[in-house]
Write a structure and sequence with these properties.
The protein is mainly β. It has 2 domains: about 300 residues, 7 Propeller (Methylamine Dehydrogenase, Chain H), CATH 2.130.10; about 55 residues, no CATH class. The strands form 7 sheets. The chain has a 4-stranded antiparallel beta sheet with strand order 1-28-27-26. Strand 6 and strand 7 form a beta hairpin. Helix 2 runs antiparallel to helix 3, helix 2 runs parallel beside helix 4 and helix 3 packs antiparallel against helix 4. The mean pLDDT is about 90. It holds the Pfam family CNH. Keywords: Cytoplasm, Protein transport, Transport. InterPro entries: CNH_dom (IPR001180), Vam6/VPS39/TRAP1 (IPR032914). This is TGFA1 protein. Its main location: cytoplasm.
Length: about 375
């Protein structure tokens, strides 16, 4: 049964990006606060400011104001963008080279600092260096079966470690010293400090795109066999039951308590609390789904959209109105980490009371008694 957990809202329409130039496609996106960056197939970066508006009826919409765009001077697509806001730098991957550019004016850093030979890259959101003026970058190198770790400063880069993998890596996520890797035939956890690795489960990267996503401290979300979204810790165990995706998931994101997945026809929303599918949104031609500081963004080749979460209290009330007491209570308990303690306690008492009356009206007196207690 469905819950209305998210609403899909347009953020950047195609005319704003490409006008009448049909050949322009969106390759990658990055969002940092109100700053939205878009990389295109014709080697441009666009910078927009996102403005969230709430109507008197509580409807949320987004306005995007274009700041500037910059041509990187190559005939190659911009394949990845990552913001390092502490350094006011944007890391741009184009033609296997990561360039550092200023987040405001999109100009390359004067020193020309760059990382060459990168197939793909990610940032370590749980860094080990302890230096606030540095970001840790992990790249899959163009060298076969090689991962490299770098420290990136405002105007220079420094290689820290080179690690060799048993098979060719095709996707990576990092947490502290731990790398979660999709190799050609399996997922593994690798500690790049000690070199100790642990097999997770088999996976064929030739058949479908692997997904490796850090979702919290020492925990990852992976696209497993049989269309399962699998959770794994750095110890190689799963503390949560898997969620059932379609076989051809393209991307996944986390917006607690939900896991959001994109395939070629739909956006699906599963609860991490009871693993049930809660919502399905038709969405054709999507090829990017990412979360940025809690904001979930999806994109087609031509437009960018934001998945706006409905307030958890509203979702709980909708469930109670449909007499789905168990689901409402599971969601209410899960909301604890998102709501201040005192406010949560008041809200939770009220929900228990409402749930008790619903059970009472359905003549489930024992259940009602427990809830009233």
């Amino acid at each position: 049964m469905s819950v209305k957990a998210f609403k899909l809202v347009s953020a950047v329409e195609r005319e704003m990006l490409m006008g009448d130039k049909n050949y322009i496609n969106i390759e990658c996106i990055e969002c940092c606060g109100k700053n939205l960056y878009i990389g295109t197939n014709d080697c441009f970066i666009y910078h927009f400011l996102l403005d969230e508006k709430v109507s008197t009826a509580g409807k949320i919409s987004f306005g995007a104001t274009k700041q500037l765009h910059k041509y990187l001077g190559l005939k190659k697509p911009v394949s990845e963008l990552k913001a390092a806001s502490a350094l006011t730098r944007l890391l741009v991957l184009c033609d296997n080279t990561i360039t550092l550019v200023n987040m405001i004016n999109l100009e390359p850093v004067p020193t020309g600092a760059r990382i060459k030979g990168a197939v793909t890259f990610t940032l370590n959101e749980n860094p080990v260096s302890g230096d606030p003026f540095c970001v840790e970058v992990c790249i899959i190198s163009v060298k076969r079966r090689t991962i490299q770790m770098f420290m990136v400063f405002e105007d220079r880069v420094q290689i820290v470690k080179e690690v060799f993998t048993p098979e060719q890596p095709c996707a990576v996520a990092v947490d502290g010293y731990y790398l979660c890797l999709a190799l050609t035939t399996q997922y593994i956890i690798l500690n790049y400090n000690t070199g100790v690795s642990q097999d997770l489960f088999p996976y064929c990267s030739d058949e479908r795109r692997p997904i490796v996503k850090r979702i919290g401290r020492q925990e990852f979300l992976l696209a497993g066999p049989g269309g399962l979204g699998m959770f794994a810790t750095v110890d190689g165990i799963s503390q949560r039951a898997p969620v059932h995706w379609s076989e051809n998931v393209i991307g996944a994101a986390l917006c607690f308590p939900y896991v959001v997945a994109l395939d070629d026809e739909f956006i699906t929303v599963h609860s991490m609390l009871d693993q049930q599918q809660k919502q399905t949104l038709p969405f054709k031609e999507g090829h990017i789904l990412q979360d940025f500081e809690g904001k979930v963004i999806v994109a087609t080749n031509k437009g960018v959209y934001i998945l706006v979460p409905l307030p958890l209290e509203k979702q709980i009330q909708d469930l109670l109105a449909s007499h789905r007491v168990e689901e409402a209570l599971v969601l209410a308990k899960g909301a604890r980490r998102n709501i201040p303690k005192e406010k949560f306690q008041v809200m939770y008492k009220r929900i228990l009371q409402q749930a008790g009356f619903i059970q009472f009206a359905q003549l489930q007196f024992l259940e009602a008694k427990e809830l009233f207690r």
